């Protein structure tokens, strides 16, 4: 029998069918080595992970605010009054995750002096999930949470979170939400989401031009409608060109 790995002939053994003994043992050693490397990486990750000061599943109870030195406050909570719920955090974590936070806290800005950062146009729950992600790179998403976190991630230049939300939203694009998703992606410079939603839009122009959101876009942002039609016409031209190509003789 011929080995699938080294292509050498060998005597058939049921235990390692398709692979000679030498290649089978080498593969087993490689597998064990990779397992040890994975375990080592998991151990390092656990050691380096900073415990989040907030539990996004229960925002009203801080899991650990020990040694936190800055507070983030959602601006739509009680008009940012003194009684508004705040999310504790560590400046060192914020500046390492976001260049915007780094600029705020490094320079003598109000946020640096007061130890309070007011986050506009975000709910307390979303802010908790945002801060938790900065510590753990983990978040539970639904479509609304993904939208709000993507906008927040773009504002504070947290690229990893933005990409994570964008990937989630791409998986949810369909005929019903393609137009509004396209408008959202355009507003927040989400290129991959923009391409995915535009593809669905141009494939279903006859249906989507009848939607109320399409009529609203004509009034609110005609630039987007122009972009849609440019993409649609370009797609039709490419399809027509492909169909008109001479066929290869059989």
Automatic annotation (TrEMBL):
Residues 20-51 form a coiled coil. SUPFAM superfamilies: POZ domain (SSF54695). Residues 68-143 form the BTB domain. It comes from the Eukaryota. Keywords: Coiled coil. Pathway: Protein modification; protein ubiquitination. Pfam families: BTB. This is BTB domain-containing protein. It comes from Stephania cephalantha.
């Amino acid at each position: 029998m011929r080995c699938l790995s080294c292509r050498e002939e060998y005597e058939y053994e049921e235990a390692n069918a398709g692979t000679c003994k030498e290649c089978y043992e080498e593969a087993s050693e490689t597998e064990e080595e990779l397992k040890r490397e994975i375990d080592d990486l998991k151990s390092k990750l656990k050691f380096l992970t900073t415990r989040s000061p907030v539990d996004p599943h229960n925002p009203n109870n801080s899991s650990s605010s020990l040694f936190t030195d800055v507070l983030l406050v959602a601006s739509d909570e009680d008009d940012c009054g003194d009684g508004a719920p705040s999310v504790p955090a560590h400046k060192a974590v914020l500046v390492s995750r976001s260049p915007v936070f780094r600029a705020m806290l490094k320079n003598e800005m109000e946020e640096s002096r007061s130890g309070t950062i007011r986050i506009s146009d975000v709910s307390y729950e979303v802010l908790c999930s945002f801060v938790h992600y900065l510590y753990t790179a983990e978040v539970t998403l639904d479509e609304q949470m993904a939208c709000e976190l993507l906008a927040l991630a773009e504002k504070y230049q947290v690229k990893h979170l933005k990409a994570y939300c964008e990937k989630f939203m791409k998986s949810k694009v369909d005929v019903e939400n393609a137009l509004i998703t396209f408008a959202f992606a355009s507003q927040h410079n989400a290129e991959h989401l923009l391409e995915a939603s535009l593809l669905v839009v141009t494939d279903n122009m006859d249906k989507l031009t009848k939607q109320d959101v399409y009529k609203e876009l004509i009034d609110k942002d005609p630039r987007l409608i122009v972009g849609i039609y440019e993409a649609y016409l370009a797609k039709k031209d490419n399809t027509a060109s492909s169909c008109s190509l001479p066929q290869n003789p059989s």
